[in-house]
Every structure is written in C-alpha cells, then in structure tokens.
Design a protein that fits this description.
The protein is α+β, with helices and mostly antiparallel strands and about 100 residues long. Helices cover about 30% and strands about 20% of the residues. The chain has one domain (about 1-90): Heat Shock Protein 90, CATH 3.30.565. Helix 1 runs antiparallel to helix 3.
C-alpha cells in the first residue's frame, strides 16, 4: 500500500506545478460481507489529461507527453506497478476507482 500511495503522489506531484494535491483515504465496511474496503482518492490541480488519454494511464509505457512537459522524467511504470499491486490484492485502480 505504501508503494501505491508513493506512486500516486509522485505522479500527481510531477504534473502539478501550482495549486494543490489532496489525498483522501476512506474506510468502509460492507454490511453483507463484513469486509473492509479502502477508497483512496488523489486530486490535484495539475495540467489534466483528456478522457482519451486517460485510457493510457495504467498501461505499460503508456506515457502521455506534451511539448510543455518534455522535462518530465519517467517512463510510465509507476501507475502500472500500482495497478499490478492493487489487482493482486483484489482491488481496482483507475481514473475514478476504489481500492479494496
């Protein structure tokens, strides 16, 4: 979980030059199954991406590069690693997701 949070925060920080990054964690319990669930939300005031480009976010080497961001370092593995970790624990991660 620590690695997932670090990757999500690092990604938000990389693309947010002004404004803020807000990370919210909420725990809920499903009354029927009695299972705990954690929802982690990362919101930032970064440059944003189109809905079309959002499909690339969790794909291997699915980097989104704009001319104004050519100094941005990274090869697109952080979110892929996060998705693998979350999926291995039976959760899901996407643009609007719940980690369970």
């Amino acid at each position: 979980m620590q690695q997932v949070l670090l990757n999500l925060y690092s990604n938000a920080l990389k693309f947010t030059t002004k404004g803020s990054i807000t990370i919210t964690c909420t725990q809920t319990v499903d009354e029927e199954s009695n299972l705990d669930s954690i929802r982690i939300s990362v919101k930032d005031t970064g440059v944003g991406i189109s809905e079309e480009e959002q499909n690339k976010l969790f794909q291997l080497f699915g980097t989104i590069q704009r001319t104004s961001q050519q100094n941005t370092k990274g090869i697109g593995l952080g979110l892929v690693i996060s998705k693998t970790i979350v999926n291995n624990f039976g959760g899901k991660i996407d643009v609007n997701s719940t980690l369970g």
